[in-house]
Amino acid sequence: MEEIKVFCPATIANVSCGFDVLGLALESVGDEMVVRKIDEPTIRIRKIIGQELPLETDKNVAGVAGLALLEKSSCSHGFEIEIYKNIKPGSGIGSSAASSAGAVWAMNQLLDTPFSPLELVQFAMQGEKLASKVAHADNVAPAIYGGFTLVRSYAPLDIVPIHTPNELYATVVHPQIEIKTSDSRKILKTNITLEKGIQQWGNLGGLIAGLFTEDYGLIGRSLEDHIIEPIRSILIPEFEHVKKAVMEQGALGSGISGSGPSIFALSKGLETATKVAGAMKAIYAKTDLDFDVHVSKISSKGVQPITKKA
Amino acid sequence: MEEIKVFCPATIANVSCGFDVLGLALESVGDEMVVRKIDEPTIRIRKIIGQELPLETDKNVAGVAGLALLEKSSCSHGFEIEIYKNIKPGSGIGSSAASSAGAVWAMNQLLDTPFSPLELVQFAMQGEKLASKVAHADNVAPAIYGGFTLVRSYAPLDIVPIHTPNELYATVVHPQIEIKTSDSRKILKTNITLEKGIQQWGNLGGLIAGLFTEDYGLIGRSLEDHIIEPIRSILIPEFEHVKKAVMEQGALGSGISGSGPSIFALSKGLETATKVAGAMKAIYAKTDLDFDVHVSKISSKGVQPITKKA
């Protein structure tokens, strides 16, 4: 195979009580990329459609992630990459992760899969480091593994795939204000109370159990975050309105996607998720903010080849 | 039914990264109780064999738990209780919880089960409040539900049964020094770093996932506690030696049982759990401390009727 076209899913990290550890992949929101072999032993970003992003390999997250893979590979050639962006950078649904994960997943396919998913996550994390100064894995892990993934540990890196119930849908609203990940990190406190810590790991335990047992009620009850959300949500206009409105429409729960400004809600079934989208739209339509709303099943797959001609 | 004899399992609370939320029940370590109906609408502790414990109903954990049930019940009679203690009070394997849980579970049977397991936990928590000033649920929940249980939340009380892999065994050593739960609580810090919190909920998520998927390796990797164990283990002689020795024997991991002084290790299979017991014995045999060692399967059941005559 000389060339591959792939779908690179948007992802939600910091899923409520799972701050810094739990992420999920969306089935129908994401970018596309074409990756093909070239003779020179390097990575070239051939074009980027849909967003203004750097074409220089060492300034582009897909380029940096690709170089990390190439360095560990024994192959004597290189790759060129075309990126078709649908995910807006800075939206909080893993724009950089989609590009980093997509690039290394596609390259691995063209090389006949010498690398494990865990290794691909490690390469893609280099892209994340370029994007936000921290080599975090909570977006690239679900982008590569699909479904819900838990980053149990960074040293050593330990990624745990979590069972994803079949009827689980995400609704995401992106109010178009800019919050930089590095800024939203700065406002967090270094210390938390032990009491809130216990609440948080109790909820994360409940959420993981709810996902494995497909207990939607338990999933909903566990979608609580008393540590990060109260601080970061101040930066997101209409956050409290949205939280209240989505519950009135039957959502299981909601929270900040990544470091914001997107807000996600989880629902059982497409019908509820669509109603939730309506509630989100109604709220932001009354503001002067531009916004996007996405409804998507939680994918059980990560980056995927696109077989039919686009 | 006028009378019932029950087995009341010992339990391990604060299972490593699951401080204050995760507990488990042992299959072959526990007390026995006989509970029978009496005409007077009260609870009477008829006798206690094996330990010196108060016979006054309002000073006995089983009595207080029983009164809590009786108060919510419509029955016009009462119960008397005989307790055959095998679990040493203050050992850290749920001695008071076994009595509280056993009493209310047995009473519920004699009343034709008007109360749910969750309600039984709430009654039994009153016994825990008498024993340690805090109405905690992390021992009584596994004592009643069996297996691993997660206390996701206290307000409202939300108990989540967690799948228990079939080959999971616990080895517990009880070095006979006295640590009061209230004292071991006092030495904990009120605040923790966010970084350690993230580590802890990552590990708890991994442990819950490992239990559901019966991934013994993941269970082992997740049995880490960087918050409570470093502080409380100072009170337990030979703690670090034991931790090291049980891993050399093939244990999955280990930690403080409850608030100590008992130390537990989890293993895959009886053979490893027995080797682990040998390592624990060898360490304390060199000290001048008295000690007990127990090896038990993790029970999938909580309090159980004893049908054959003892």
Shape category of chain A: globular
- The quaternary state of the protein chains shown equals homodimer
Low-confidence stretches of chain A: none
Determine the CATH topology of the largest domain in chain A.
Answer: Ribosomal Protein S5, domain 2
Largest sheet of chain A: 7 strands, mixed
Describe this structure in words.
Two copies of one chain form a homodimer. With 310 residues, chain A is α+β, with helices and mostly antiparallel strands. Chain A folds into two domains: 3-162 and 300-305, 2-Layer Sandwich (Ribosomal Protein S5, domain 2), CATH 3.30.230.10; 168-297, Alpha-Beta Plaits (2-Layer Sandwich). Chain A is 36% helix and 27% strand. Chain A has helices at residues 61-72, 95-110, 117-132, 140-145, 181-186, 194-213, 216-222, 229-232, 239-248, 270-285; strands spanning 3-12, 22-38, 43-49, 78-84, 148-154, 157-162, 168-175, 191-193, 253-256, 263-268, 291-297, 304-305. In chain A, the strands form two sheets. In chain A, strands 1, 2, 3, 4, 5, 6 and 12 form a seven-stranded mixed β-sheet that branches. In chain A, helix 1 (61-72) crosses helix 3, helix 6 (194-213) packs antiparallel against helix 7 (216-222) and helix 9 packs antiparallel against helix 10. The longest helix of chain A has 20 residues, at 194-213. Chain A starts with a strand and ends in a 5-residue tail after the last strand. The model of chain A has no long low-confidence stretch (mean pLDDT 95). Chains A and B meet through strand 5, strand 6, strand 8, helix 6 and helix 7 of A and strand 5, strand 6, strand 8, helix 6 and helix 7 of B.
